[in-house]
Design brief:
Layout (H helix, E strand, L loop, with lengths): L1 E10 L2 E11 L3 E6 L6 H8 L7 E6 L2 E2 L2 H4 L2 E4 L11 H11 L4 H14 L15 H13 L5 E5 L7 H16 L3 E5 L3 H7 L2 E6 L2 E7 H8 L2 E8 L11 E6 L3 E6 L5 H8 L4 E8 L3 H12 L5
Helix pairs in contact: 3-4
């Protein structure tokens, strides 16, 4: 288990991270989410000991983080950093050496990963000769090569086509299935919703909400329905029980007031349009993200 306790980071007069605490359980994907500049990367870099916290503790397996702890972590940064003139295999062996892997084990593991990702034939090519997607694969391999107990991924799917995105997702799921810890930071809310069992949402360095995703949806989600229809549905713009609506070609997602009964609402509109589908739905994580961030920033929707 990884524990972050009362983490604070102050730069001169700017509080970048303000009293953040959370626990990441083994075998779980923990989503660290927030808008640009919220403090996510600062938190990750403090966990990785790249920068020192002004205050707070990072504890792994009941021990305060130390140099040995750093060898247990794999990190994929949002700002990719590969030595472009290096050969693929040499680069991977170098990164492995930074985690105290012996050369024989590192080379064996590197070749294994290159094979799994379908790029073994590129092992003697220079990084600059590779496509962007293949460079991303090398960056991912460098983060998992030493078999870390904790994996921190910052926007891991950037630069991948849908097929390669799914491949990396499969390896991420395989990683946590062995009882390891994974922290995922991404702006792709649909991906976070599919992968994360717990989320921690921050804005302006402070916690907005956190917990099991299912519980957050229940607590903050609201009263939502989806309507498939034929006809003119613009009357929803003026309906007293409609707080918000997103209208598409032949369906609409509607946020009703808390006191509205979805089925009574359906009865009230059924003579105005042809209903082809009706369901009560959970709000998307994307919707919760936007609402909570806007509310915490004092923005009026």
């Amino acid at each position: 288990m990884l524990e972050v306790k009362n983490l604070v980071k102050v730069y001169k007069n700017v509080v970048a991270v303000d009293g953040i605490s959370f626990t990441v359980k083994q075998g779980k994907i923990f989503g660290l989410l927030g808008p640009n500049g919220a403090g996510k990367t600062t938190i990750m870099r403090m966990i990785l000991n790249i920068i020192k916290p002004t205050k707070g503790e990072i504890i792994f397996e009941d021990k305060i983080s130390n140099k040995e702890f750093l060898n247990e972590i794999g990190y994929l940064p949002e700002e990719r950093g590969l030595y472009r003139k290096s050969k693929v295999i040499d680069l991977l062996l170098y990164f492995a050496s930074l985690k105290n892997m012996d050369r024989f084990s590192a080379k064996s593991e590197a070749i294994n990963w290159l094979s799994k990702l379908g790029i073994k034939d590129l092992m003697n090519r220079k990084i600059e000769e590779l496509s962007k997607g293949n460079q991303q694969k090398i960056q991912f391999i460098s983060s998992v090569l030493h078999k870390p107990k904790i994996l921190v991924l910052d926007e891991p799917f950037t630069g991948f086509d849908p097929i390669n995105q799914q491949e990396i997702k499969n390896y991420i799921l395989e990683f946590v299935s062995t009882g390891k810890i994974l922290i995922l930071s991404t702006h792709q809310m649909d991906t976070a919703e599919k992968l994360c069992s717990e989320i921690f949402l921050i804005n302006e360095g402070k916690e907005i909400c956190s917990g099991e995703l299912s519980e957050i949806k229940r607590k903050f989600g609201g009263n939502y329905i989806r309507i498939g229809f034929d006809g003119d549905i613009q009357f929803l713009n003026h309906h007293q029980q409609v707080l918000h609506r997103e209208i598409y070609n032949n369906y609409a997602d509607v946020h009703l007031s808390d006191d509205a009964n979805p089925y009574e609402f359906l009865k009230s509109i059924i003579d105005k349009i042809t209903i082809t589908h009706f369901s009560v739905i959970e709000p998307s994580l994307n919707k919760i993200f936007i609402d909570k961030v806007n509310h915490s920033s004092g923005m009026v929707k």
